[in-house]
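Ligand-bound model needed. magnesium ion.
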Amino acid sequence: MKRYKAYCFDLDGTVYRGNEGIETAVRFIHRLQEEGVEYYFITNNSSKTPTQLQSALAKINIEAPTSRIYSSAITTAKYISQHYKNAIVHVIGSDGLKEALVEENIALTDDLNADVVVMGIDQTVDYMKLAKATVAVQNGATLIGTNKDIKFPSEFGFLPGNGSFVELVANVGNTDPIYVGKPSPVMLEVIQEEYGYDKEDMVLIGDNYDTDILCGIQFGCDTIHVNTGVTSTEQVLKKEIQPTYCLEDLSEI
Ligand SMILES: [Mg+2]
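Prediction:
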């Protein structure tokens, strides 16, 4: 297999399952670290901060600096600072998302004349917040969502995900939102921009065809599907566009 300069890993189902590390992935990452090859972790999870994700990795024996961990919240903040210089941002979302924006020195406002409206999951969202976001978008703000998930499973059944609220604001504001989470290619674009890689230098490794693999395909880099999580190899083989490599697990590299 070709050797890449930057290995971008999904987390859940690729590096760990819940609290348990996937041994073959952990060994592969140790090997990259020993050889001084660059690695990044990219996850649609925006509820955990990079520090929390760092400690989840530490529990499975992977020591990684937070600078290598790209949650959809962190990546949203970096994307705005790369593409909307000096933008004033109106935000609906968790404290984690707001902190990520402030960390990138992005100015936040409650004002309805913002340059960008950012939406992440907010469990205290109400009519007024959504109404304000729709007005800000009609006033010309770009609408950016951390992730597109319409729903997520819970013990009660499915509950509304961030994408449900973003679509609502987009419909009223008559705009097409930009999504940062996979399968959008934005997370890989942000890493490429920050570190100056060529697409040929990068590879995306993930278990979920519809998020991970499509993210890599849309970005235009090589992809490795591992049969350790959501999408089985059997299901992947039926897809029209195939990943560059289909592996049982990362011991095959
Ligand atoms: Mg996954």
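The pocket of magnesium ion is lined by residues 10, 12-14, 206-208, 229-230 (CB under 6 Å).
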